[in-house]
Amino acid sequence: MTTHRPPSSRRSRRRTLTTTLSLLAVAPLALTACGTGVTSDTASTGGSGETVTITNCGRELSFDTAPARVVGMMPSQTELLLRLGVQDSLVGQAQTDTSPLPDDVAGQAADIPVLSTDAPPAREALLAAEPDLVVSPTEYEFTAEQGFASMDQLAQNGAQAYVATGGCADRRNTAEVTDVLTDVTNLGDILRVPDAAADLARDAQDRLAAVETAIADHPRLTVAQVYVEGNSLGAIGAGVEADIISKAGGENVFDPNAPEFADFFAAEINPEEIISRNPEAIVFGTASPQQEEQTRTYLRTTFPDIPAVKNDLLIAVPQSDLYPGTLGNIDAVETIAARLYPDAFK
Q1: Across 42-56, 202-216, 271-285, least confident range
Q2: Which positions carry the signal peptide feature in this UniProt record (predicted)?
Q3: What is the DSSP letter of 110?
Q4: 163 pairs with which residues across the strands?
Q5: At 107, phi and psi to the nearest 5?
Q6: 157 lies in the same domain as 85
Q7: How many domains does the chain have?
Q8: Please, what's the largest Cα pairwise distance for the chain?
Q9: Angle between helices 194-215 and 328-340 (to 10 degrees)
Q10: What mean pLDDT comes out for the span 80-108?
Q11: Are 180 and 221 contained in the same domain?
Q12: Are residues 170 and 273 in the same domain?
């Protein structure tokens, strides 16, 4: 397999939203900066006068009281915070044009100040919001070289940064759908809403269990997950994306343990790699109806003879459902499973 690391210009890909990797990938700079994976080490989750301490991407975060000024750095994180019931504490939302909030919570965000639309907020904009907690999908959003507020700068201004479990560098390639449950629990403890977090986690677990039960007796179909950008074709073989395919009942035609995915969850490939693997379904992320149609046209034109095209099993998933640390990962599992095994969900 001929592999190349996908372009690392996250800012430009955020602007265009032309690939499933936009807002999914951690830029190479961030990949070397995140530290160890997330583990929950809650010292106390009681009243607001008690201290809550967790370990996040190798950093210890400690909260004597519930944060009162919170910023969601992506709509996926803003949604999670809204579902935890802390909308009154939200003083900022960022990258709002990258994906819409679900209809049932969008109204709650109407009065939350928008700090940025298509890229992480500039340093000055984030610091001006005077947050005490910033919740982000990856550490890229804190890259000082890009003009963003670093974690150290946030700390100097009294704020702490929580990064999604699946967005930690050494977790990114092995992330799982259930990592978002760690985020739900941790944020529930930090924000002193453990009951809301427990309800949210239970609902997510029930939905995943329902999919598992529904597809239990079905032979697994082979699936390729791809991204298309211009004339470039890429395969996604590891990370939470691969686990989404697995939990939806698909057999990934790309091995997450293969050398090309050792350091990065995606790799550029030649079309022949898809043809040789002959997948029964292809999954791809989409940011707009236009992009979805362009990708479908490319796949149908390039691979007319593979089963996925012949049987019209080209499965589009909103890109936002593939981001680290989002409840949308569970939506993606349900969407893909229902397309792979429609008889199981009648």
Answers
A1: 42-56
A2: 1-32
A3: T
A4: 136
A5: -60, -30
A6: yes
A7: 2
A8: 64
A9: 10
A10: 96
A11: no
A12: no
φ, ψ of residue 333 to 5 degrees: the values are -60, -45
Q: Measure the CA angle with vertex 42, ends 142 and 244; round to 5°.
A: 60
181/235 same-domain check = no
Is pLDDT larger for residue 256 or for residue 112? 112
Report if residue 247 sits inside a domain.
yes
The answer to whether the CB of 203 falls within 8 A of the CB of 259 is no
Rounded distance between C-alpha atoms, residue 79 and residue 263, angstroms? 30
End-to-end CA distance of the chain: 39
**Residue 42: Cβ-neighbour burial (10 angstroms; 0-12, 13-18, 19+):** middle
pLDDT value of position 1: 56
Beta strands in 246-324 (DSSP E): 250-252, 266-269, 281-286, 314-318
Q: Please check whether residue 204 lies inside any domain of the structure.
A: no
57 & 180 share domain? yes
Query: What is the rounded CA–CA span in Å between residue 218 and residue 212?
Result: 10
Considering the domain architecture, whether residues 89 and 123 belong to the same structural domain is answered as: yes
C-alpha to C-alpha distance for 210 and 308, rounded to whole angstroms: 25
> How far is Cα 151 from Cα 171, in angstroms, rounded to an integer?
19
**Residues 6+ positions from 131 with CB-CB distance below 8 Å:** 67, 69, 70, 71, 91, 92, 154, 159
Residue pair 127/157 in contact by the 8 Å Cβ criterion: yes
Q: Is 36 exposed, middle or buried, given 0-12, 13-18 or 19+ CB atoms closer than 10 A?
A: middle
Domain containing residue 184: 33-194
For the chain, the average pLDDT equals: 87
Calpha distance 327→98 (Å, rounded): 16
CB atoms within 10 A of CB 166: 29
Alpha-carbon distance of 38 to 53, in angstroms, equals 12
Domain membership flag for residue 12: no
